[in-house]
Specification:
Elements: E1 21-25, E2 29-35, H1 41-45, H2 55-73, E3 83-94, E4 103-114, E5 117-126, E6 129-141
């Protein structure tokens, strides 16, 4: 693993950082983890009598893992001249709900790369049970002055 790559190698920060640690990384795949913190604000208002993690945030976990994979492929956070952003979301499939306290395993796999566009498939699981699968594309956009 790239020793300089950490969850904060992307521009996201708390409370909108959805990667706790990087478990495994290669040139075409990354595996990360995120605890669905029972104290997270979204659990208070997203079905408060039966709290579940919003699906859009589960997808965001995949997008951030994908941004970390891009950062790794480009040589680390010091080598990037731009900001990784999602440019396409396609075919999100939700299988199960995430409850407060669940430990998420997030995987992003590079399916294709064209110029500065990265086409990926993301998956979230809890205890090896599939939660969501989503295909998406990311690219580097220029940083604002």
């Amino acid at each position: 693993m790239n020793a300089t790559l950490t969850p904060t190698s992307i521009p996201h920060r708390e409370p909108f950082l959805f990667v706790d640690d990087i478990v495994e990384i290669s040139d075409s795949r990354i595996v990360t983890r995120k605890l669905a913190d029972p104290k997270a604000d979204f659990f208070r208002g997203h079905y408060p009598d039966n709290p579940i993690m919003p699906g859009v945030l589960l997808c965001e976990c995949c997008f951030q893992a994908g941004a970390l994979l891009m950062t790794h492929r480009l040589g680390g956070p010091d080598k990037i001249d731009g900001i990784p952003v999602v440019t396409r979301i396609k075919d999100a499939r939700f299988k199960r709900m995430v409850r407060p306290g669940d430990m998420l395993t997030i995987e992003a796999v590079l399916d294709d790369e064209l110029d500065n566009a990265y086409y990926m498939t993301g998956r979230v699981s809890v205890q090896d049970k599939p939660i969501v699968r989503v295909t998406f594309a990311c690219m580097l956009t220029p940083k604002e002055a």
